[in-house]
Amino acid sequence: MFGDDDEYSVTDSLWSMICDRFGFISPVWIIRRPETLTILDYRPTFYMFLTAAGFVGMAVLFVFLFVKIGAVDSFGLWATAVFAVGCLALSFRGTVREVYYFDKTTDSYSFVRQFIYRKEVIEGSLSQFTGAYVKTESNDDGETYYVMLKQEGMFLTGVSEQALREEVPIFNLFDREARIANAISGFLPSKG
Predict the structure, then answer these.
(1) CA nearest neighbour of 167 among 30, 27, 48, 28
(2) If pLDDT is split at 50, 70 and 90, which confidence band does 183 have?
(3) Could you tell me the pTM of the whole model?
(4) DSSP3 helix / strand / coil % (the chain, rounded to 5)
């Protein structure tokens, strides 16, 4: 209806239903303990998902062609092998999982980005964060959601907030990001 503040989109509703149905493929686990909070985020980026699926598809096609044709000098056989290796090489750029660990006893946090061959660790003081919220960015494809950590004061970068994830994962839904932001906000000590 005209003038209605609620914008209902059939495609957004359908995408939400699909993500709810297949969300078990890439779970987000929140482990709350009295003095620690651990968030395990197994959602790969869309780029990582495509390259991994491309590698598996091309590897299966290579094996099928090798068994079916049997000739080692076939162009199709080696073309699929080259594409499989290319997809495998490109998949090394994406993250497999991300782990966020907050500890009140040591006043520290640790963000771990796990790649196939390496991992990045960001550590610091937990007391610099004052809360978390979900930031929504609208673009041509729809809306993208980010968990933003509010920081106390401005640091070397000149910003007072930090995004939890740099690249958007698949199954990026407001509900999942809100679960993460609420868990972090509930765990952080209140400033007051």
Answers:
(1) 48
(2) very high
(3) 0.77
(4) 40, 30, 30
